[in-house]
Amino acid sequence: MNLNDLRVIKTRKNIESVFLSLLMEKDFHKITIQDILDRALVNRSTFYKHYTDKYQLAETLCSEILEALKSGVIDRFGCDTVEDALMVVKPLYQVLEDRSEEILALFTIHTDSIHLYEDMSDFLQKSFYESQKLKNKQSPEILDYLSNLYAAIVLTAMKWCLKNKGYKELTKHTQLFMKLDEVFEYTSI
HSE-up of 3 (CA within 13 Å, CB side)? Predict the structure, then answer.
C-alpha cells in the first residue's frame, strides 16, 4: 500500500475522523470495529489494511499529538527570553487549537499502552528535569518534585485552554512558565 496515495490518505483520515467522533460519544472500550466500519462506510478488509485494531488506531493518533508536543517543548527549554519562547511555542499552541477536540477525546483513553495525558506529563517532567539538572543545585528528589509540579501546572493550563478555547490565555502563560523555571531554579525546600 502506497501511503502517499491520495485514496489511502483520504481513507485513513476518514477512519481516524470517525473514530474520534465515536470517542466523543462513548468510552473507548465500548467502541467496536463494526461501529467504525458502519460510520466510515468502509469494509472490514479496508480497515485492516490500515490498522491492526482500534488500539493501533488510537496509538497512531496519540503518537502524532505527542510528537507535536515534544518538538515544541524541546525547543522551548532552549529559550532564554519570553519572546524566543513565544516564537517556539506558538506553532505548538496552533496545533492545540486546531486539534483540541481530538486531543480531548484521546485524553479519555486509558489502557495499559494508551495514555496520552500521562505520556505528555512524563515527557514534560523529564524535559524540565533535564533542563534544570545542570542549572539547579537541588537534590534529585527536590528536582523530581519540581518537575512533577511543573508538568502538572503546564498540563492543567493546557487542558483548560483546550476545553475553553483559551489559546490567547495559554500564550500569556508562557511568561509564567518561563518564570517558573527561574523560581524553581532558586527554590530551596
Answer: 2
